[in-house]
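haha ok so turns out i had the wrong file open the whole time. this is the CORRECT one, sorry everyone. sequence first:
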Amino acid sequence: MKESFSLDALLRENIKKLVPYSSARDEFKGEASVLLDANENAFGSPYSKNYHRYPDPLQHQLKEKLYQIKGVPTENIFLGNGSDEAIDLLFRAFCEPAKDNVIVVPPTYGMYEVSANINNVALKKVNLTADYQLDLDGIAAAIDAHTKLIFICSPNNPTGNSIRRQDIETILVNFDGIVVVDEAYINFSKLPSFTKDLVEFPNLVVLQTLSKAWGLAALRLGMAFASQEIIRVFNKIKPPYNINQATQEIVLEALQGVEQVNTWIKLLVEEREKLSASLAELDEVAAVTPSDANFILVKLIEPRALYNFLVDKGIIVRDRSKVELCEGCLRFTIGTPQENELLYRAIVDFYATDND
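then structure:
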C-alpha cells in the first residue's frame, strides 16, 4: 500500500477552511408527516407526479444499489452531473489557480483541458507513444512541485485502447498527487476496473459513467470512486442537490436491468470486432486501432471527404483527423448490427465512387 500520500498537503487552503452549505435535508433525516423546513410548495407539483420535495442530497438509495453492482462501499462513491462534475470538483479542490498544474496524455478526452482552462490551471501535455501508451519518462520529467493531478483515460478516448495497467500502477506508486483513471468505457473491456485498488492507492480516483453501456446519457449521471477522505471533499464542495429526484428514480429503476445491459455489451463487442475486421480488409483503410471501447478509431484515405459523404447519407461519425497522433482518422461508434452494416456499405460505396 502507498504510504507517502498526504491528502491534506494537496488540498487548497480555502477548501480546508470551507464550511459547506447545510441544506434542510442535511439537517433532518428520517420520516415526518409535516415538512415545513425547506420552503417547498406544500401543494405539490403541476405534473402527474409530485416533485415538490428536495431530493436526497447524497443519493443513499442509488449508492446502495451501485454497491451491490460494483462492489464498492457507498462511502467510496460520489455521484455527479456526469463525470464532468467530478472532473471540475477535482480542479476546484486540489488546484490553486494560476499556481498549480495538471498533466494530461493526448490524444485524450477533451474535457480535462476545458476544466483546466475554466479553473485557470496550467495544463502540461505529455503525448502518448506511437502505440497509444504512456510515455512514463516524459510524465516523470513533467511533474514538478505544483503538479496536483494526472488524468489517464483507459480505455482511451479517442483511440479505444486500454493503457497498460503496470504503467498506471507505476505512476500511482511514484506520484504523490492525485491520479485520475477515467474508465468511461470499462464495461466494454475484459480488463478489471481500478475500483478494486482503492485501498492500495489512496491517491487514486476512478471515474465511470452510466452514459455508455447503461444507455443513460440523457440523465447525466457520472460516478467517482475514491477513498472516503476524497469523497468527503467532493461532498463538501458540490452543490447541495446536484442529482435531481427524477434522475435518481429513473436510474434506480434502470439499475435493475443488469442482464439486459450485459446482453447489449456482449452484442456491441461482437459488432465491434466484426466491423473492425471488415474495415481492415479494405485497401483504403490504413489502420484500425484495437479497441476495448464501444467505438473504433480508423485511419483512412481521404477522411474528411468520407466524413462529408457519410453526413450526406445521414450517417454521423466523429472526425478526429486533425487531432495529434490521430491524423487521417475517423472515430466510429458501434451501433446496432443494421447501423453498422449501413456504415460499412456507405464506406465501400464512397471508395468505389471515388475510384470510378
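The chain has two domains: 7-256, 259-355.
again sry for the mixup
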